[in-house]
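Team,

Forwarding the record for the chain on the shared tracking sheet. I've put the sequence and predicted structure together so nobody has to dig through attachments.
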Amino acid sequence: MARSVLPGPASRLGLRDLVAEALSGTLQRPGRTALTMLGTVLGIGAFVAVLGLTATASGQIGERFDLTRATTVTAGDHPSGDGLPPGVEPPTSFPPDTDARLARIDGVRAGGLWWPVPGAPPLAATPTGPDAGQGLALLAATPGAVAAMEPTMVAGVPLDPYVQESRQPVALLSSAAAERLGVSRLDAQPAVFVAGIPYTVIGVYSEVRRQPGALPGVIVPASTALERFGSPPPGGERGTQALVATRVGAAGAVARQLPLALRPDAPEAFTVVPPPDPHGLRDGVASDLTGLFLALAAICLLVGAVGIANTTLVAVLERTEEIGLRRSLGARSRHVAGQFLTESTALGTLGGLIGTGLGVVTVLAVAAARDWTAVLQPAATLPAPLIGSVVGLLAGLYPALRAARTDPLKALRSG
């Protein structure tokens, strides 16, 4: 009587064995594994760093831009008579009491007039010394304009109404101008020479919050400049301009009222520039930067995926005999595919973890170096290792399928 042959137990590959085999295959060549992960590390690191730095920088842009630009209104002479109503003469200057008129507008903290002194007279440390004014701006300004600039005084005092009314020959120097002209202290009442005429230095400032053109320059009272150098040309960048510092949220209303406050008879005589929308500009800049760097991060991820796919495929070719032996001993196609998919996914996950860590460290280092507040969005940081896993999984699909389709007999014969 013939005996029936019972089939053997079905081949199984447990999760623990699968992970162990994948780790063994990954750690056999640590140098190649590290190089394979490099693309994923760079891509995920760039992804996390870009989003973190963009969010961090946007916070700084918002803080500085909103507080300065959103509270600044400027106005200038109309460059010509074109476009003015009939009978309105082309403007030649602001009214002499501009500072007082601006101060009466609700929402204005400070405001006044300034202009580049025409003719670019020479600046020197001595009456007969060489011109040291190359690269330095000589500006005329009223006390209100200087207050609107909000200079950070290193020594001395800014311009006040007395020096304006009495047309005093005094000057404010930026730190760069003071260094260039050899002014190191003010207790001896030093003087600088403008076109050979002495001007007593009453103050030195290191920076200005508004009108950055005054940083490498010398500021003299507007009344003194009018008396000694004449009126500036009407209109244009070289003409008289008004600078107004407003309270937060008042810039729009101030910009609408400013022409009427200056010349009720001809408000069209001035071109008023209100602050731009800070949120729109900030969001536009942040969006452009984020799109650019995310494109670079995507390229790095693509390179990493190609590297993982290439390495996994090479591993399949190198281990053809091993695959054939496993198949002949009962391993199924899905077991072989699962092993190589697990290897590629492990490479992607490890690269994602390392890249995430490097991205976070980069954001923290940049923020600490610039004294910023680091901003890291959990929605962008936490899924980053998962992105690495997905990249590794997708990169290993073709090599895993190729390994699964390996004929065991051909594989053993080729070995």
